[in-house]
Design goal:
Structural class: alpha+beta
CATH topology of the domain at 4-82 and 89-110: Nuclear Transport Factor 2, Chain: A
Number of helices: 6
Strand order of the largest sheet: 2-1-6-5-4-3
CATH architecture of the domain at 4-82 and 89-110: Roll
Helix content: 40-55%
Shape: globular
Largest sheet: 6 strands, mixed
Radius of gyration: 15 Å
């Protein structure tokens, strides 16, 4: 059986974005509360950006379940949010779909309001649960990704 999820997260713990990208199908669709939907190279580039910019990033993963068509995992990230210098502990559940032995669909789910409280303090507590915040945050995240080369 293909162990692509384990390979992906093992690479993530080592900030090995090249190996992470090699686990993705060229037509991958990634989605999470921070970036919204990303397609293909845009999704691959996001992992490079997160690995290279996450100076104190620590990743742990568990509960991997995987078959030929889909899978899931639980992972947690600890890092300093660069815009505020605040420490964040994000708890994420991931769902995957596979094609040709690679990840074609990847959806990360986490509590954006809880994340915003940690990363932004009072403003995050106040606004982090609103659709307005989610939209603005996704716009900013995509803008950062677009600038990243």
């Amino acid at each position: 059986m293909n162990k692509v999820i384990e390979k992906f997260y093992t690479a993530f713990t080592q900030k090995d974005w090249q190996t992470m990208q090699s686990c993705y199908h060229d037509e991958v669709i990634f989605e999470d509360p921070a970036f919204g939907k990303l397609h293909g190279d845009e999704a691959k580039k996001m992992w490079r950006m997160l690995c290279e910019q996450g100076k104190d990033l620590k990743i742990e993963f568990s509960a991997i379940e995987e078959n030929e068509s889909d899978g899931k995992a639980h992972w947690e990230a600890w890092y300093t949010f660069s815009l505020t210098g605040k420490k964040v502990h994000n708890v994420i559940d991931a769902a995957f779909e596979f094609k040709d032995g690679l990840i074609i669909g990847h959806k990360d789910s986490f509590n954006l309001h809880k994340w915003a409280k940690q990363a932004l303090g009072f403003k995050g507590w106040l606004l982090g649960g609103t659709n307005f915040f989610k939209k603005k945050f996704q716009e900013q995240a995509r803008k950062s990704l677009k600038k990243y080369s």
